[in-house]
Design brief:
By secondary structure, the chain is an alpha+beta fold. The chain contains six helices and three strands.
């Protein structure tokens, strides 16, 4: 019962919630004297195998949306934009998307002797294994790919290493439309 409800609505549920729900259900029957006591809740939880558990993962509302909700939101957006787009020049209707990129493809599995506890794989440049970047391209409705690409280099401490910083500084001198910001991933 609770497991099914948690699949549909993954929110935190407390013993007090169960008592309130039981009292609300019992209020439909005016002749029933029901108190949702500690003893009743203990028996109810034991009967339905309900235990308090540590939360192992927090998820966003978007992650728990059903396919129907996602399709409905997409259709609503599509209809809304379809009505707006004819009011604008095709060169000024933009579509953009991000793509995450890894400097070096990594696989977290390899063949090794059965029973091995430690399996090492050598990499020439560990930085390329631990770092990634995001590129964001923009295209117009008329089919033109805009010449500027937004690139986000993600650094754990919010600062580039000396070699990367040198390259960034050189590009900033060449390209006048470069915006450089620094923000820690921890923030």
């Amino acid at each position: 019962m609770i497991a099914l409800w948690k699949l549909v609505n993954p929110t935190s549920v407390t013993t007090r919630n169960l008592q309130q729900w039981a009292l609300a259900a019992a209020s439909q029957f005016p002749d029933l004297e029901f108190k949702a006591s500690e003893a009743w809740i203990k028996i109810f939880k034991r009967k339905h195998r309900i235990r308090q558990r540590k939360i192992t993962k927090f998820v966003s509302e978007r992650e728990t949306a059903t396919m129907e909700e996602t399709h409905a939101a997409a259709e609503k957006f599509r209809l809304h934009t379809r009505a707006l787009i004819p009011n604008y020049d095709k060169d000024f209707v933009l579509n953009t998307d991000q793509t995450g990129c890894q400097y070096q493809s990594t696989y977290n599995r390899t063949l090794a002797e059965q029973g091995s506890k430690v399996v090492l794989v050598k990499r020439k440049d560990m930085n390329k294994v631990t770092h990634s970047y995001t590129a964001q391209y923009v295209m117009t409705l008329s089919g033109k790919l805009l010449p500027t690409v937004f690139i986000c280099l993600q650094e754990a401490n919010g600062n580039f290493g000396p070699r990367v910083q040198k390259s960034v500084d050189e590009y900033a001198k060449i390209y006048t439309n470069v915006a450089i910001t620094s923000q820690s991933l921890a923030s």
